[in-house]
Amino acid sequence: MNRDIEALADQLVATRFEQEPLEAAMLGLEEGSAGLGDSSRTAEDHFITRYRAIAVSAYALVERLSHGEVDLGERDILTLDVVSHSAQAMADQLEVRLSDFTVSDFPNSPVAGLVSVLPQLPLDTVLRRRQYLERLSVLPRALGQVSDRHLEGVASGTTPTRHGVSNAIAFIDKVVSDPQVSGLLRDVDDDEFLSTQDRLLIDDVVPALVNYRSVLEENILAHGRDDEHPGLCWLPDGDTLYQTMVR
Fold first, then answer.
1. How far apart are CA 227 and CA 211, in angstroms?
2. CA distance 153 to 44
3. Taking a C-beta distance cutoff of 8 angstroms, is the pair 139, 212 a contact?
4. Which pLDDT does position 63 carry in this prediction?
5. Angle at CA of residue 91, ends 88 and 96, nearest 5°
6. In whole angstroms, what is the distance from residue 73 CA to residue 22 CA?
7. Cβ neighbours around 208 below 10 Å, total
8. DSSP 223
9. Rounded Cα distance, 127 and 218, in Å
10. What pTM was computed for the model?
11. pLDDT at position 67, please?
């Protein structure tokens, strides 16, 4: 395989796993699998720049290929096409700023997604159990970042639907009232793990979920779009958001 293309492909995968560590973990990979992704706007801007740079490099190789400057095999051509398209698509998706207005009980919503995915992670090794505890320890930070994004969305008029916010509030109520915390409380044969897990859930995670719920109820719900205005077309630059997501 062409070394430049292989390096770009590796760079794209590494960037993706840095942006979404849980994705690596769900694939059973250790690389980049510790912790949780950074949901701040600053982090999004950082990754948009990195994905755009990868796409530019890929398109430059495509241009050289079209002029016969590089002799590539079928696998090289296919990989380069995937890298160029994927890097561009990942940057485009981040530019939609979904965290500003995506609030619901569906897994595509940041908080519901975390609560749904974390219980699926295997805890069959000491390393994976340690990583799970690390994720629980930074979950309050992640919830705070998502709260900030929702508040930024309200300030800019990029608001969620009222129906979605109501469902998210109900979802959190179920999570915090469940003795198993919707699966976040894991049962493994490791006393030290269990002790640390209990402390993190009781002292940090559940209070952070309650705080996030308060933000939704007190600061977001009243600004939610009603059932007659659910589509992105009702948001500022909604047509552009649709075009970006379609692309």
1. 26
2. 15
3. no
4. 81
5. 125
6. 33
7. 18
8. G
9. 39
10. 0.91
11. 77
| Burial environment of residue 4 by CB neighbours within 10 A (0 to 12, 13 to 18, 19 or more) | middle
Write b or e for each residue in 31-68: b if 16 or more Cβ atoms lie within 10 A of its Cβ, otherwise e.
ebbbbbbbbbbeebebbbebbbebbebbeebbeebeee
Alpha-carbon distance of 19 to 87, in angstroms, equals: 13
Q: What is the pLDDT of residue 177?
A: 97
pLDDT at residue number 139: 97
Residue 41 has which token pair?
Answer: 């706007």
* Token pair listed for 71: 């002799």
Tokens of 78: 């296919």
Whether 71 and 1 have beta carbons less than 8 Å apart is answered as no
CA distance 113 to 131: 18
Written as six digits, the tokens of 56 are 């530019």
Length of the chain: 247
CA dist 231 and 17 (Å) reads: 30
- The per-residue pLDDT for 31 is 63
How far apart are alpha carbons 113 and 133 in whole angstroms? 18
Q: How far is CA 240 from CA 96, 100, 112, 234, 236, in A?
A: 9, 16, 26, 11, 9
Mean pLDDT by 10 residues, the chain (247 residues): 91 95 87 82 98 94 77 87 95 95 95 95 92 96 97 97 98 97 97 97 98 98 96 93 89
For the chain, first and last CA: distance in Å?
A: 29
Q: Which two tokens stand for residue 38?
A: 């950074």
Question: How many other C-beta atoms can be found within 10 angstroms of the C-beta atom of residue 236?
Answer: 10
Q: What is the CA radius of gyration of the chain?
A: 21
